[in-house]
Amino acid sequence: RNMSSAGPEGRKKMRECDGLIDSLVYYIQGAIADHEPNDKATENCVCILHNLSYQLELELPESYAQSIYMQRRNLSSNDKTPGCFGTRSRKVKEKQQDTPLPEEKSNPRGVESLWHSTLIRIYLSLIAKSTRNYTQEASLGALQNLTAGTGPMPFAVARTVVQKANGLPSIRTMLHVSHPTVKKTAVSLLRNLSRNTSLQSDIAREVLPDLVSILPESVPGSDIVCETTASICYTLYNLTQSNSHNARLLLSADGLPKIITISMNDCNMFSKASRAASVLLYSLWSHTDLHSAYKK
């Protein structure tokens, strides 16, 4: 577990170690099957997999990168592909979002397991069944890592979490735990998921009222709460930016007074949350059909 946080070279060596990832997955599957999701060894295994999934899209071996991103060849030559992963182009992002992963292998081995739906379902199962904060946080964090990029892999993982594995109810529960880091990681995961336009309706229906409910009534009182608040605002921004129905849902959940209060604080310590709330307010105002409702 300590070695897995040793940086890019350490992660590379561990991903390449024959049988290591497979053994970790095998152990966790056994713990879940035996109804023992709270033992320390399971926590260690999940934390290792969490670390090995960090920056996975950037650090994949070339052979996997070419296989996964093969369909990028259909992008027009005008888009000048900047390597496999480093694009900031909106056109390329949109194209990637619509590009599915190649068909999953039924028996993944080694590094292939890290983004496979089997492991995604294991993380969601641990989120639902474990009461150990570090295990919950590591499971949420691994999913956050896997959905953090802009290529086909993160969007495919996001679709698996939301639509194929029905993971939103388990993630929603984590929004209401008392442990601040678990809550923060759950919100960060939802922020990643909410970037996928095809999933926004599902996410808004399932968790938008919960996101509003955990917004603080006044200015956040600590760094971690401030970061969580900013992340909630950006998630709500993603969900409402192009969707008037979701903006109305936010309004009916009494989110507007909270967002206004957070946006009006200019104390340096809380500027991140204040700025995020202001960006959200600006976006909400773009729904002109809701102006009269806002004023009321």
TrEMBL record:
Localization of this protein: Cell junction
Q: Which SMART domains does the record associate with it?
A: ARM
Gene Ontology cellular-component terms for this entry are: adherens junction; cytoplasm; intercalated disc; nucleus; plasma membrane
Q: What is its main location?
A: other
GO process annotations (BP) = cell-cell adhesion; desmosome organization; heart development; intermediate filament bundle assembly; protein localization to plasma membrane
The segment annotated Disordered runs over: 79-109
Instruction: Kindly state which keywords UniProt assigns to this record, in alphabetical order.
Output: Cell adhesion, Cell junction, Repeat
Q: Where is the composition biased (Basic and acidic residues)?
A: 94-107
Q: Which family does it belong to?
A: Belongs to the beta-catenin family.
Protein name (record): PKP2 protein
